[in-house]
TrEMBL record:
One of its GO terms (biological process) is benzoate catabolic process. The keyword Flavoprotein applies. NCBIfam families: pbenz_hydroxyl (TIGR02360), PRK08243.1 (NF006091). This is 4-hydroxybenzoate 3-monooxygenase. GO terms for molecular function: 4-hydroxybenzoate 3-monooxygenase activity; FAD binding. It holds the Pfam family FAD_binding_3. Keywords: FAD, Flavoprotein, Monooxygenase, Oxidoreductase. PANTHER family: P-HYDROXYBENZOATE HYDROXYLASE, TRK SYSTEM POTASSIUM UPTAKE PROTEIN. It comes from the Bacteria. Residues 2-341 form the FAD-binding domain. It comes from Pelagovum pacificum. Signal peptide: none annotated. The gene is pobA.
Amino acid sequence: MRTQVAIVGGGPSGLLLSQLLHLSGIESVVLERRSRAHVMGRIRAGVLEPGTARLLRRAGVGDRMDREGHPHGGTHLSVRNQGFRVDFEALVSEQVIVYGQTEVTKDLYAARDAHEGTIIDEVEGVTLHDAGGETPHVTWVKDGTEHRLDCDWIAGCDGFHGVSRRSIPASVLTEYERVYPFGWLGILSETPPVAEELIYANHARGFALCSMRNANLSRYYLQVPNTDTADAWSDDAFWSELRKRIPSAAAEVLQTGPSIEKSIAPLRSFVAEPMRWGRLCLVGDAAHIVPPTGAKGLNLAMSDVHYLHEALRHWYEGDRAAIDGYSARALSRVWKATRFSWWFTTLMHRFPDQHPFDQHLREAELDLLATSPRAQAAFAENYVGLPL
Ligand code: RFL
Ligand code: PHB
């Protein structure tokens, strides 16, 4: 089998890349390790930057997002159980859209199916060959039979645990990593969200986040030690702890109910560079991870896709040098989002070895954010996403 671009991984990055390439007349094949039901059932990101929303519209997959997504013109931050609002519209003339990654993924699958795109799922043992040379190809096993796909380019869209990054020789790759000493315990509940917009809460007991998917589906998170397990947290214990950490006014009106999903995600910052080696380009979580505090992971994956799609389009039009700029262009945005996510995580969480001095500094910085329009503008500019 032959194609122009072999895409390893059928998450949001791989699917959007194949859709944009298709619209530019470039063929691709997507190889996904999991079943489609598994990929579509994963509950992850919830906030889309306006730049991501524009990209999805350009890819022809924005209709349902515009109908069913919820534009948010601001967000709430909270300290010592007192909330304050940062007004994105007033400060930077932008809104984010609350629309789940699960829905983005469904829309992308629907679009690829409508265009008869080739997505091969439940593949095993994906192996990259000659990615650093001139005859790149990918092999895998499906239903006990080995297959081979020859291509011009390989896009590594296979997430943090994928095979693509590991195919690059260690002598070529530099990896930067920070693992945070806590995780996020997240629950989904069929209850109305506690507020119309998100609430990010700093509290001496630990961070909390109130988010949502729609008018009757709420998503809440609590900072917990890395050693905790989701099973050890009863729903009652979760709600009781959440009430202690969020603004008092929100705690009073919080509606609780049984959780329909409960899991713990570890928090890490990770960047691998360069993002290109020969004929292999890394995209999204395969190359970088941010802690979820700034809601940047999916959005960064989408901006990588945008840069790679442009570079490949130019390459197929005869501009062979365009691809040389891909890694530096993507990493420039990645590092800025890595900085913001690290800063916001540090500001909002409680660290195990933290001194009362550190909590005072965090509270002082949050007081500054509550009262300084300039500090708020810098926050808003980063939260809604730097320009592509
Ligand atoms: P994905 O989504 O991990 O998809 C990779 C795909 O590759 C497949 N795969 C393979 N396929 C073939 N062969 C192999 N060897 C393979 N190995 C892996 C996998 O099965 C999978 O289908 O990466 P992608 O496409 O780069 O997308 C990245 C985003 O999923 C991720 O950044 C976000 O979910 C991060 N994130 C958030 N991002 C935001 O922008 N806003 C948010 O509000 C936000 N909240 C979150 C988040 C991530 C979270 N978790 C669970 C990590 C909240 C949480 C709790
Ligand atoms: C979510 O709704 O899952 C969500 C929202 C904002 C974040 C992270 C996760 O910063």
